[in-house]
Amino acid sequence: MIAAVVPCFRVKEKILDVLAGIGPSIERIYVVDDRCPDGTGAHVQESCRDPRVKVLFNPENRGVGGAMVTGYRAAIKDGASIVVKLDGDGQMDPRLIPKFLKPILDGKADYAKGNRFFVLESLKSMPLARLFGNAVLSFVNKLASGYWNVMDPTNGYTAIHVSALKLLPLDKIDARYFFESDMLFRLNTIRAVVEDVPMDAVYAGERSSLRIARVAALFPGKYFARFMKRVFYNYFLRDFNPGSIQLVTGLSMIVAGAWFGIEQWHSGAVAGSPATSGTVMLASLPVLLGFQLLLSALNFDIQNVPNKPIYPQFE
Predict the structure, then answer these.
(1) How far apart, in whole angstroms, are the C-alpha atoms of residue 246 and residue 58?
(2) Which pTM was predicted?
(3) Distance of CA 64 to the CA centre of its chain
């Protein structure tokens, strides 16, 4: 069974059109009312006659991540094999669902996500602030998640195979606006294969509840924490590889060179004698070599993107 989860919060005016556009490839639709003040869930129950639709209610507002976890759990319980996520605000075209299912059904990926940066012409409709913000977040997310092959990390149009979904710690996934980025980090820790699906950017005047100030305040710390965890998991806890050696050696050389240089500079300043060219070279050479090793470790990380899907191993 292929299912879709539609998290709902203040989308009462558009939810019925979204549901009507979901094609026959989806056999079950979970509409998750995330304590919507407009009563979206009740509206769907009263007005939607699609037998595939099942409305779930969160007792309190848990955010998009919390709503998705509610839907994911229901889909897993009902025996779904693939779960698609699309929002109820009309910005995600339901006709694209087969494109998101294809890489998973073909055995090429465990997780498919939208990429609004692939079609350059469609970017004209994206507000400039969102375009710049998503471009910056894409680069930071590559470093934090380890998926150097994907863009547009905040894109919420996704599909995931249940074999990968069952391996994720659903209780630990960020419940709010960091949900999509956190999903990528969690997927990397289980070595799931992620593939981008090109899609148009659609904006028709909808107001996003995501504020730039909130992103600037909260996201850097979250990304840094995920980056440190990923490096520890992938290069020291679960494996020890050339990237691990390059990282440790590079950082050690930079610290040693910098410490030696600072100590020699301080000693020279106290004695009133400038450092010799040999001393400068002894301090700078380890720093330069250490930086080169860090670049090599980064290159190893880029080449270490997961490329073997999880779910065929469970079939």
Answers:
(1) 47
(2) 0.88
(3) 14
